Amino acid sequence: MKTSSLRRHFLTLAGLLALGASIYASAADAYPSKPVKILVGYSAGGAVDAIARSVGQRMATILGQPVVVENKPGAGTNIAIKSLTTSAPDGYTLLLAANALAVNPSMYHPAPYDLDRDFTPVSMVGRVPVVFAVREGSPIKTLPEFVAAARARPGGVTVATPGNGATPHLAMELFQHTAGLKLSHVPYKGGAQAITDVLGGHVDVVAVNALEVLPLVKGGKLKVLAVMSTERSAVLPGVPTVAESGYPGFEASVWYGFVAPAGLPAPVLAKLHEAVQKALESKEVRDQLAAAGGVPLPGPTSQFEKLLKSDAARYGQLIREANIKPD
Asked: Which residues, at least 6 apart from 214, have a Cβ–Cβ distance to it below 8 Å?
């Protein structure tokens, strides 16, 4: 190719790239020009739904467009996740995800999606600790007593959870492995029934997220043995963490974060991330998280990406070793 022709070729290519960048920037500048939808893989009225609506309301004010929440419960949140991955990567469809997003590729066979390929992480939102709790009249009063009872009767201490593969179940399995115990898992279809049977004395201990036990703890019907977050919970300040009870570094919490479909343009991602960060500064959102027993987790997108990878690795290994199957 002659020098003049080569020069014209590069000038044309540069022009096309500049035009593409201009169109790209214009599209980002126009975002958002219509309502934004937040998908939730759980029923209306639950903790994830309440947090999605609280954060979404603040984001609507920040973005200048309505933000609507659409509940798509079922299949371990895979229905909502499928709806997200088949949506356009334009910033108008988000998912408020929880731990199941990182867990499901190891839990279901074949894997319903690829965590690295199918999503654009946007921002962390918050974290709620998983807790161990017993009925008020239980002979087990502390986490060391729970451990002692389990060691005295291998397989004889029963632990109720909201179901196979739920975060509290995985937290229980993780603690069992860490403490070198053999516990008997009793899965239920949700936390409410698990708690009812612990209250009735049919099961020894329940592992659930903090939100589900708070009213009963305040009413004197349940006693929390330990919280599984790295720090004590503001709503349960007198309850020690598992880590400070003899298991340094132990952590198992329910987290929430926003993801979008793969291929989300960087300028749109930046706008969404900024909107979430500003929403997390509001008193209304912080109060909603506190009511759920949790704390906000502002931070860069890279922090969320790191969490997704680390949880996928550690829970994936746990699922394989313990041969955990979905309900």
From this structure: 235, 236, 293
* 8-42 burial code (b ≥16 CB/10 A, e <16): eeeeeeeeeeeeeeeeeeeebeebbeeebbbbbbb
Q: What is the largest CA-CA distance in the chain?
A: 90
Determine which helix (DSSP H) or strand (DSSP E) holds 227, and give its type and residue range.
Answer: strand 222-227
CA neighbor of 129 nearest in space, from 325, 271, 19, 292: 292
**Torsions phi, psi for 69 (to 5 deg):** -105, 130
Over residues 168-184, the mean pLDDT reads: 96
Prediction pTM value: 0.85
Average pLDDT, rounded, for the chain: 91
Give the Cα separation of 260 and 268 in Å (integer).
11
Sign for the pseudo-dihedral over CA of 162, 166, 171, 173: positive
17 vs 63 pLDDT, higher one: 63
